[in-house]
Amino acid sequence: MSRRYLIPAATHRVEDTIKRSRFISTAAHTPDTDSAKAFVAEIKEEFPDATHNCWAFAAGPPGDTAHVGMSDDGEPHGTAGKPMLNTLLHSEVGEITVVVTRYFGGTKLGTGGLVRAYSSMVNLVLDTLPTKEMVETVTVTATIPYQSVTLFKRMHPDFEADILDEQFGVDAAFTLSMPEEHLDGFTKKLAELTDGRGTIEQN
Predict the structure, then answer these.
(1) Suppose 99 and one of 2, 55, 143, 167 were both cysteines; which one would form an S-S bond, judging by CB atoms 3.0 to 4.6 Å apart?
(2) pTM for the whole thing?
């Protein structure tokens, strides 16, 4: 059964001032480790004069710890990256990187204050983050007899299937993209519709 989950729909930024320090939180969609690291590098380049550019990423479904990373970037160990990552992993958003940029304002926050500040900056950007649904899809080719084409075209919207290509030879062949979770039901329905003569091949 494939999963559906939320991912960032766009790069998003919020700012806050905590005890005179300026905090800038930037979030982006990063589906893998390489894109997460590239985004961190981009933000560091944008704010080269910042006191810290702390970051955390979870490049997988929400709560998945297989592809994660974090950095305190000079803040005391465990006060920035770890709380940021924990906040991300407990959110409902996947494939995300957040960089929290800090310009030190002269007042020290202490370790507890830093943990709270960095966690709250991740929550702040998540609160207003534009999201979209991520659906794992498969591409298949369905080959069917011509007499079944009309019924076939009526059934594919029920399975959220999009026709990408049509070929008309001895039989009709349709290349389709659909959510992986619908593939079994789609295959059974196609067999019923064509009296077992339709075939499905995964691309």
Answers:
(1) 55
(2) 0.73
